[in-house]
Amino acid sequence: MELLDRYLQAVRKYLPFRRQDDIIAELRANMESQIEDRESELNRPLTQGEFDDFLRKMGHPLVVASRYQPQQYLIGPTLFPMYFYVLRLALLWAFIVCMIVAAVVTPLTQSGGQAVIDALFRTPGILIQTAAWITLVFAAFDFARSRYPETCAQIPGVNRNWNPSSLPPLEKAPHSGKPRSFTQIVIEIVMGVLFLGWLLIIPHHPFLLMGPGAAYLEAGPFLLAPEWWTFYWLLIAVNIMQIAWKCVELGRGTWQWPSRFLGIVSKAVGLIPIVFLLSVTDHRYVLLKNPVTDQLHYGQNLHQVNYGLYLAFSVVCAIVALQLAFDIGRWAVEIYRRPEVRP
């Protein structure tokens, strides 16, 4: 029955989230009853080929799931799950591109905050146009295939000749806890892009990070050590990697259950900038602009600031390291408890 489980798993991906369990239970009972009736008629179990034919008659998972969708008027139930999936991805990528342009490209190419504001205000119009074009294309295709079925080609991968063996494999272990929603992953990506844009603006507008302290640092006797630039670009690289992987999860349709291993890798990579700061020679994070003349007056203050920063980074590193060790231990326990991977 593994192929049946794979089939139902594929159907589940296109069902309304709140009704998934009930629909799958009903569908499983119906299909198992039909299989038992057929095996009783033949007085033997179904062969692989006969089981494949049975699934083909049931229909492609996308088509089966469309029967449980609410009635649509502009786009029919057969195309609506595909339309909604494409629409979500297109709007997400359009929004990400708009945010990158507004938060990253515009500040680097144009001066002044008005250009960023103008780019942000153009985003809703771009999203509306994207949604309108996708809706128009799907509506036209649905109209053509309903009015002229003999001349309109079948949907690729959804016709009756689809191969059940092409269904994705079963997940190795059931997931626990509440799955991450589509809205949640979108918010995570959007916030990641906005945070990245904020980081990239900081060198041109240090007030966004330090507030009034930026003016004090500019006028005072202290300056930041060059190592901060290395830390800054490491932080940029880590954030880009995290955003990119979340986009990959979204594109692959695995956002509901993010990989535990990749989460551990992401947290481990996030330690690199902190470890770099801890390895700075003599923990010199802040320097004197004129060490010869100001050492006598500000030397003690400088030592206290650097030592305080070192302690702060040490605490942060310890907390992240403990979280990482806890995640690794929990992941190892889960792997050990799986019967198929025990030694």
Question: Topology of this protein?
Answer:
Layout: H1 2-12, H2 20-42, H3 48-58, H4 61-66, H5 80-109, H6 113-121, H7 123-147, H8 182-201, H9 207-210, H10 213-219, E1 222-224, H11 227-252, H12 260-278, E2 286-288, H13 291-337
Antiparallel strand pairs: 1-2
Key descriptive features of the protein:
elongated; 3 domains; 343 residues
Question: Would you mind describing this structure in some detail?
Answer:
The structure is a single chain. The protein has 343 residues and is mainly α. It has three domains: 63 residues, no CATH class; 78 residues, no CATH class; 160 residues, no CATH class. It has a two-stranded antiparallel ribbon. The chain starts with a helix and ends in a 6-residue tail after the last helix. The C terminus is likely disordered.
Task: Give the overall shape, derived from the CA principal axes.
Answer: elongated
The percentage of residues in β strands lies in: under 5%
Biggest sheet: strands, sense, closure?
2 strands, antiparallel
Order of helices and strands: HHHHHHHHHHEHHEH
Strand neighbour order, sheet with most strands: 1-2
Number of strands: 2
Which class best fits the helix and strand makeup? mainly alpha
Counting DSSP H or I runs of 4 or more residues, the number of helices is 13
Low-confidence stretches: 339-343
Computed over alpha carbons, the radius of gyration is: 28 Å
Domain unit count:
3
> In terms of quaternary structure, what is this?
single chain
Mean pLDDT equals: 76
How many angstroms does the end-to-end distance come to?
A: 26 Å
